[in-house]
């Protein structure tokens, strides 16, 4: 089966590495004394580690903007655009963006920076750690078209972190109806939080009903499980394992990236 992944990535079962930006202006954790320059410097260091380690793509997100907003303030995407603009000369892999948890802002940022995809929660209503969380995929799909961002791929996270679907529906029916009504460019299946393992059986359930829509494992990939998970999924989005000691708050280290990508290459040799 040929999909848009074959046009974007040079290897099968691509590994998309998360580039987590430190807290931004307006965020509770923002370091106003160090300023945006410190955020750019750390992002550049981690980008080098990820690309040198051999990942297939990069996704830039405001991961440290905790606690997240479901409708972000303008300063968030504006700051991210400035940071990405400084990194663009060094981006040698395909890249996407994610403004947590704001689908419209993610699409705005992608169009402004030339990103090829976004990942967000585009469907469903949830009870979450961030309050009642609603979406409007029809509105977002029309907005993407209206601003001329129709080529930006939309990766739908259908198992959102720190949230539960309000309706009594199982994962199979959610995935099946999402594909039918919203035509996602990919589906992402997650664990409870960043770095938490994704249930392989959940991946199988989604893959079974996804048809031609690619399915990504979205959290918790590591060398010990990457072969098992890529035997089901069409690719992986990951970040925590790449960081020093595998801790979410630490910086990405090239040695850990190389370790994971070595396991991926071993798996690809079996395809």
From TrEMBL:
SUPFAM superfamilies linked: Ribulose-phoshate binding barrel
Pfam families reported in the protein's UniProt record: BtpA
Recorded family membership: Belongs to the BtpA family.
Protein name, per record: Membrane complex biogenesis BtpA family protein
Organism: Microbacterium murale
Highest classification ranks of the organism: Bacteria, Bacillati, Actinomycetota, Actinomycetes, Micrococcales
């Amino acid at each position: 089966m040929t999909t848009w992944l074959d046009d974007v990535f040079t290897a099968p079962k691509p590994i998309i590495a998360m580039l987590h930006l430190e807290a931004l202006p307006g965020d509770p954790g923002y370091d106003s004394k160090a300023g945006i320059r410190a955020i750019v410097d750390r992002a550049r260091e981690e980008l080098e580690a990820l690309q040198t380690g051999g990942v297939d793509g990069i996704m830039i997100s405001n991961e440290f903007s905790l606690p997240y907003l479901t409708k972000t303030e303008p300063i968030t995407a504006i700051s991210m655009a400035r940071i990405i603009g400084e990194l663009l000369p060094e981006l040698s892999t395909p890249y996407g963006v994610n403004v947590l948890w704001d689908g419209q802002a993610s699409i705005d940022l992608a169009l402004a920076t030339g990103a090829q995809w976004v990942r967000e929660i585009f469907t469903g209503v949830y009870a979450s750690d961030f309050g009642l969380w609603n979406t409007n995929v029809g509105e977002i799909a029309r907005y993407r078209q209206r601003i001329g961002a129709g080529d930006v791929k939309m990766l739908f996270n259908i198992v959102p972190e720190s949230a539960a679907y309000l309706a009594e529906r199982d994962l199979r029916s959610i995935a099946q109806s999402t594909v039918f009504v919203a035509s996602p460019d990919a589906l992402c299946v997650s664990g409870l939080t960043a770095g938490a393992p994704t249930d392989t059986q959940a991946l199988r359930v989604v893959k079974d009903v996804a048809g031609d829509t690619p399915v990504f494992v979205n959290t918790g990939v590591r060398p010990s499980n990457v072969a098992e998970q890529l035997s089901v999924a069409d690719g992986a989005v990951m970040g925590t394992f790449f960081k020093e000691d595998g801790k979410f708050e630490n910086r990405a280290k090239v040695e850990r990236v190389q370790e994971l990508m070595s396991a991926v290459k071993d798996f690809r040799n079996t395809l």
